[in-house]
Structure formats: structure tokens, C-alpha cells
Design the sequence.
């Protein structure tokens, strides 16, 4: 342990069917292995709760139960007198239990860090009795909650809770979960834990959160009550912000996002990889979008979700950009890494914080949006970029463009990465089909150009399109494919969204990849295909010239005839594909995630380890490159 801050009081809360007792035993063993003295207190309510089941509170619409008490949600009508007295008794016994446990922990710790774990907390009492928020009973539980350093709320699905635990008698599992969420938003230091995962992973996530609190020194008098995140012994805090979360629910992959619904892409993947690498040396928080506000922990990283998902994909991005400065003011940090979010790209975070801000140009595409929608987002982008002093681009061409927009900025070029793979010589040059893999966006991804080129190519291999997009874009692609489906056997197949396993299979079994994009920031899919030893056919865009001489085949931009000719040549010549594929695999070895995330780690150390006056950006032209 890095610091000692007395006895920490931690509650494991949640419905009785969520396995709290078993998680408490796992946590006790894990903390003991790390030299933390642990005192546990088991409790299932006061002595009346153990002898007599708590009657269900006033039922909501659709919930089972008797109407024996007044409606608890009515702030004027406080419920029956026996129920109020029972709530006070429950709170008093919980207070006595935790006081005794803290005294025991202090006496037995002998100077070591001590933690008191309870398998029940004030949050459970509030859910069980359901007092009005303004009542004295609710106030008693809230005062108790203030004594806890942490409340871990274990959330599970309704199927897990169904038929388990007497609390379910107080309402449906869905209503029970809703009450926990409602009360948790009113109490301090509550962290939501995904209890649907295997118990070992749940316990590991809870352990990391407890250790994070242990490492954090108590707030100094001049700091606010939100908890200090700075101190001589505490690790420095790095925050990353990105609209999408590659590891969160609903991730569908398939290329970077320009404008469209919440389909995740390259930016989310990069931020996830970088966050895990930075967590080796720093405390890391990722700010991302969600349907509701909340905090969760995965792999020792805190994820803070801004509630913008219900606004829809396009409006949600605008709201996310608007909320970022407020998040930067609320979350204490030493360094902020911002992955730009379309359509305005920049979130003007340097205006909201005195800490260094690094802008990561993952999805900047305002010029494309101007050509497509005639909306001058580029004006807001130019204004925003001029405020940044540290920027990261994916390729040298974009870095040059950014330097023109922000001449005073220190612009680094750090490419995307790929997992290293052993080259299977026996598969070089082989393949069953031509593959397009990415987001379905007919104009930006050049799918109309690709289909025209395939018609001209007369290739002996079929064309597979894998990916997903907005409903409108998917309908547009379906119409384009259907228009070319003449003959008894169609040769163009759209297979829809590809999960990770399907993605690997398509890359492994393809003959080569096609990337007919009108706009790209990097082309992560191309790098993944190169790692499998597959040639990549693409238009010669400046942003894709990192592939030059790496087994790629480039044709003049938007020359459909040339694209079709080279597509037919690659489809017919296995020996040509074999030679290009070998060069592709060798080139991909220069772009491993370990190398690329290590450069972000080095950048973070350079900005945080130097004295404050030395944090000024270097002169233009001195940035180090990730390209060969």
C-alpha cells in the first residue's frame, strides 16, 4: 500500500440475490493477500428484520403487494408509524455494528491499513423501507452513508434476481433495481459494479476500486468534499475522453465514425488500448457517453459515463461536446487526453482546465462534412484547434494540416496499432473472396465506387461487404447491391455486422482487402489486414501513404477504371498476392500496440514529469514520428 488513511468503511450493497456474502468473502481474502487487515460484519437488518420479514412497502403500479401503508413516494405522507420506527431501529443497529467493527479493526491492525467490510449498507436500508427523501428516517440513513468511504452497488439482471431473496417480495426485480439506482444517485461515494460477470472478475474490479481509495490521501482542508486526487504519495491522474467505448455494451466495430449513430470505431479502440497502457504508471479515468450517468471500473480503470445516449446519435455527440468542459471542471486531473468527436471535433477543453490537454485527431473530418452537407463545421474546428498546445495525429499528412491550423502546437504523429501475429507462409496468396470491412457509409467509404469498379474488373473472386451503419445507409447499400444482382448466382454479398471472431475469420480467409474510401484518418482495418499478410488496394489518399511500399496497391484517387483493373489483376494472380502479402505482414510489425501505446505513455511522462515552466511545447518540426 502506498498510503495509510486509518480505517476505511466499505459496504457491499445490492439485492439479496446478487451474491453479496460470497463477494465479501472473496474481497476479504484478496485484501488480506495485499497486507490489508480486514474486519467483516455480517448483517441482514436489525433483530426485528431477522425475526419478522419486512412488509412490502406501498406497491407501485404493476408490483405485487398489499396496500397496508401509505405511499412512500409522497413527501407529505410518511408511511405508517411502525414502519418508520422499524427504519430508525435498523439504522441504529447498523451504526452500532460499524462502530464496533471500526474499533476492532483499529485495535488489531497494529499500524497496517485496515478496512471494515459490511455486506449491507445504508443504501440497502433506504431501498428496504423506502422512506420519503425528506423524512427523518432517510436523513438517518444518509448520515450513516457519509461515514462510508465507499459503497459498492452490485447490479445484476432481472433474471438473476427472479425468485431469489425476500426483498423481491417488495416488488418486481426491475422495480427493485430502479429503487437501488434512484437512491444511489442521492448518496455519496456509490460505485456501480456489474454483477453479471463471473464472481472472480467482479471481486477483482471491487478490489481495484477499494485499493484506489486506499491509495488516495484524504482531502486537505482547502479542497472540496469531492475527494482529493492529488498528493505527494498518490499517482498522478490522467483522464481520457471519447464519445464511444470499445469495451462497453453495444460495441460493433468497423472503422472510425464521422457522423452517424453510435457505431464505435477506431477512436474507441485506440483510447481503450492507451488507457490500459497508461494505467501501468497513472490513475486513469475514461469519460465516455452512456444512456444514463454512472461510474464503473474495468481492469483498474474508472469509466465515467455522461448521460447523452438518449439524445440520439447526432444530438448525443453535440451534447457530449457541450458537457465535456463541465466534466473537466468536476473531475480533478493532472493531464487530459481528448479524442476528437465530430462534427466540431474539438471540445475546447483547454479553456476549462489549467492542466495540459492533448487533442487526439482520430475522427476529425470537417472538410468531408463540408463537401457532403455544406455545413461549415471547419470554422469551429479552426477556432478550437488554435487553443491546443499538444496534438496527436494519426499520419504525417494530417499532422501537416493541423500545424497549419495551430502553428504554436506541438504536433506528434502516433499511428494506430495492431496485435502482432505469426506469419503463416502457407496461407500467403490464398483466399476465397475480396473483402471490404468497415462502416457502411456509401459516400465516405466509397462503396458506390467499389461496386462500379468490381463490375469493370470481371474478377473471378466474389466480393464480400462486412459492416453496419445507419438504417438509411444500409438501405442505400442494399439497393446498390440488389441493382447488381443479375444472373442466377449473385457475386456481391453483404454479410452485415461482424463481431470480433467473425472479423478475424473474414480477414484470414480473404484474398485481399479493398479500401475505396473518399476520406480516411488512418485506416485501422487496412493495418489489421496487413497483419494477416493481405494486400490492400486503395486510392492514393495522403492519409493512407503510411502504407506505401508495405504491400499495398495504390491507384489515383477516385479513378474507378484503374481501381477495377488492379482489382482484377490481384484476383487472378496468386503469386502477386503472395509477394505483396509477405511485405504487408512485415510492414505491420512496425505498428504494434505495445510500440504505439508506449509513445502515448512517453508523451504523458514528458508532460507530467517536467516542472511546470518546462511544459511549453517544443518548436514546430521537432515532433517524433511513428512512421518508418
Sequence:
Amino acid at each position: 500500500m502506498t498510503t495509510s488513511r486509518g480505517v476505511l468503511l466499505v459496504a457491499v450493497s445490492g439485492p439479496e440475490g446478487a451474491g453479496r456474502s460470497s463477494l465479501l468473502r472473496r474481497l476479504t481474502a484478496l485484501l488480506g493477500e495485499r497486507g490489508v487487515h480486514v474486519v467483516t460484519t455480517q448483517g441482514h437488518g436489525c433483530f426485528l428484520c431477522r425475526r419478522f420479514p419486512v412488509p412490502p412497502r406501498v406497491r407501485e403500479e404493476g408490483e405485487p403487494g398489499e396496500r397496508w401503508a401509505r405511499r412512500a413516494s409522497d413527501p407529505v405522507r410518511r408511511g405508517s408509524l411502525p414502519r418508520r420506527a422499524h427504519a430508525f431501529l435498523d439504522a441504529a443497529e447498523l451504526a452500532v455494528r460499524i462502530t464496533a467493527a471500526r474499533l476492532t479493526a483499529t485495535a488489531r491492525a497494529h499500524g497496517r491499513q485496515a478496512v471494515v467490510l459490511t455486506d449491507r449498507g445504508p443504501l440497502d436500508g433506504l431501498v428496504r423501507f423506502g422512506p420519503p427523501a425528506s423524512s427523518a428516517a432517510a436523513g438517518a440513513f444518509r448520515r450513516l452513508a457519509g461515514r462510508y468511504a465507499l459503497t459498492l452497488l452490485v447490479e445484476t439482471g432481472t433474471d438473476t434476481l427472479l425468485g431469489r431473496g425476500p426483498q423481491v417480495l417488495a416488488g418486481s426485480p426491475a422495480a427493485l433495481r430502479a429503487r437501488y439506482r434512484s437512491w444511489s444517485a442521492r448518496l455519496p461515494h456509490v460505485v456501480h459494479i456489474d454483477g453479471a460477470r463471473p464472481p472472480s472478475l467482479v471481486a477483482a474490479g471491487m478490489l481495484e476500486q477499494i485499493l484506489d481509495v486506499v491509495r488516495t490521501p484524504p482531502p486537505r482542508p482547502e479542497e472540496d468534499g469531492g475527494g482529493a486526487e492529488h498528493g505527494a504519495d498518490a499517482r498522478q491522474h490522467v483522464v481520457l475522453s471519447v464519445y464511444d467505448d470499445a469495451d462497453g455494451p453495444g460495441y460493433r466495430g468497423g472503422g472510425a465514425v464521422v457522423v452517424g449513430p453510435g457505431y464505435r470505431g477506431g477512436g474507441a479502440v485506440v483510447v481503450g488500448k492507451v488507457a490500459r497502457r497508461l494505467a501501468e504508471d497513472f490513475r486513469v479515468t475514461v469519460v465516455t457517453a452512456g444512456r444514463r450517468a454512472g461510474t464503473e471500473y474495468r481492469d483498474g480503470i474508472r469509466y465515467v459515463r455522461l448521460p447523452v445516449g438518449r439524445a440520439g446519435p447526432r444530438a448525443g455527440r453535440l451534447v457530449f461536446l457541450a458537457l465535456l468542459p463541465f466534466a473537466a471542471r468536476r473531475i480533478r486531473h493532472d493531464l487530459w487526453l481528448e479524442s476528437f468527436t465530430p462534427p466540431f471535433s474539438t471540445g475546447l477543453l483547454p479553456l476549462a482546465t489549467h492542466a495540459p490537454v492533448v487533442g487526439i485527431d482520430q475522427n476529425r473530418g470537417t472538410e468531408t462534412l463540408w463537401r457532403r452537407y455544406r455545413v461549415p463545421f471547419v470554422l469551429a474546428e479552426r477556432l478550437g484547434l488554435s487553443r491546443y498546445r499538444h496534438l496527436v495525429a494519426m499520419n504525417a499528412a494530417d499532422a501537416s494540416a493541423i500545424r497549419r491550423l495551430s502553428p504554436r502546437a506541438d504536433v506528434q504523429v502516433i499511428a494506430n496499432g495492431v496485435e502482432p501475429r505469426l506469419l503463416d507462409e502457407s496461407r500467403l496468396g490464398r483466399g476465397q473472396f475480396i473483402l471490404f470491412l468497415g462502416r457502411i457509409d456509401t459516400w465516405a467509404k466509397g462503396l458506390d465506387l467499389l461496386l462500379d469498379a468490381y463490375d469493370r474488373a470481371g474478377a473471378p473472386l466474389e466480393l464480400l461487404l462486412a459492416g453496419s451503419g445507419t438504417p438509411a445507409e444500409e438501405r442505400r447499400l442494399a439497393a446498390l447491391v440488389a441493382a447488381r444482382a443479375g444472373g442466377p448466382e449473385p457475386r456481391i454479398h453483404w454479410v452485415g455486422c461482424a463481431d470480433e471472431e467473425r472479423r478475424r475469420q473474414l480477414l484470414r480467409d480473404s484474398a485481399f482487402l479493398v479500401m475505396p474510401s473518399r476520406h480516411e484518418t488512418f485506416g485501422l482495418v487496412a493495418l489489421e489486414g496487413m497483419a494477416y499478410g493481405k494486400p490492400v488496394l486503395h486510392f492514393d489518399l495522403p492519409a493512407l501513404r503510411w502504407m506505401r511500399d508495405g504491400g499495398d496497391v495504390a491507384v489515383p484517387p477516385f479513378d474507378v477504371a484503374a481501381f477495377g483493373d488492379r482489382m482484377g489483376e490481384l484476383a487472378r494472380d496468386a503469386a502477386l498476392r503472395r509477394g505483396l502479402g509477405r511485405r504487408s505482414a512485415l510492414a505491420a510489425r512496425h505498428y504494434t500496440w505495445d510500440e504505439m501505446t508506449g509513445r502515448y505513455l512517453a508523451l504523458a511522462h514528458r508532460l507530467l514529469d517536467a516542472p511546470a515552466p518546462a511544459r511549453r511545447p517544443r518548436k514546430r518540426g521537432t515532433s517524433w514520428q511513428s512512421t518508418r
